[in-house]
Amino acid sequence: MPLLGFGVYQNYTTRSSVLEALQAGYRHVDSAQAYRNESAVGEAVRDSGVDRSECFITTKCISKNHGYDSTLKGVDESLTKFGFEYIDLFLIHDPYSGTERRLATYKALQDARRAGKIRSVGVSNYGIKHLQEIANAGYGAPAVNQIELHPLCQQRPIVDYCREHSIVVQAYCPIIRGNMDHPIIQMIAQNHGRDAAQVLLRWSLQKGFVPLPKSVTPERIRSNAQLYDFELDSEEMAQLDGLDQGKKGAISWNPVDAP
């Protein structure tokens, strides 16, 4: 899995944005059935000239479609829309469907993996309770848990659990949806001659997360990938760590406490 992904939530020019991202060096695209742009992602991959095997493609199934049979049907539908023979990572998008349907959905994705339709099974927006539920059912741990993560909302208990159980943590909203005017963020950006988004993405990478920035602006798509020629020092990392507001810092739906 490439350490930097390109998110396409609420992207209404998905084909051109993904083409731009692939040209800028991204090889990881994060989509979802609910985004209604799987077809555009698949088209962009085919038109890019980048070999499918070099691309890591994620999609997700939202809670209204959870359940064993509906999930298997959804996997086939996603494959058709993408125009792919397999999907690299398939996530349960959220935990709102309740224990029984969550587990049935997880089992369906495991079976789809055994059938060769998907390569890895993961979850999104799962709290510790939801992750423990999978373990208690005797199913293998998810490969990934994708959650809201940035300095203002660090979800440390969930991150610690994932690390203890070798679950990769992906970070959505890594640049706080553009709300980057905090003086500490701005100061660190000025110190490095970088923009604030690059600082936040570098923080995410140094924390061991897989950030998923999204943009429709070609310049921003490219600058968000220019992260490997500078490093935040320990003091700067500590300053950003100190911005954590817990759940109050969330800027998205963040349904990690769903029953």
Automatic annotation (TrEMBL):
The protein, known as: Aldo/keto reductase
Residues that hold substrate according to the record: 93
PROSITE patterns found in the cross-reference section: ALDOKETO_REDUCTASE_1 (PS00798), ALDOKETO_REDUCTASE_2 (PS00062), ALDOKETO_REDUCTASE_3 (PS00063)
Keyword check for Oxidoreductase: yes
Site location (Lowers pKa of active site Tyr): 60
Upper taxonomic lineage: Eukaryota, Fungi, Dikarya, Basidiomycota, Agaricomycotina
Organism field: Rhizopogon vinicolor AM-OR11-026
Domain NADP-dependent oxidoreductase residues, every copy: 18-244
Alphabetic keyword roster: Oxidoreductase
Active site: residue positions: 35
Family stated for the protein in its record: Belongs to the aldo/keto reductase family.
InterPro entries attached to this UniProt entry: AKR, Aldo/ket_reductase_CS, NAD(P)_OxRdtase_dom_sf, NADP_OxRdtase_dom
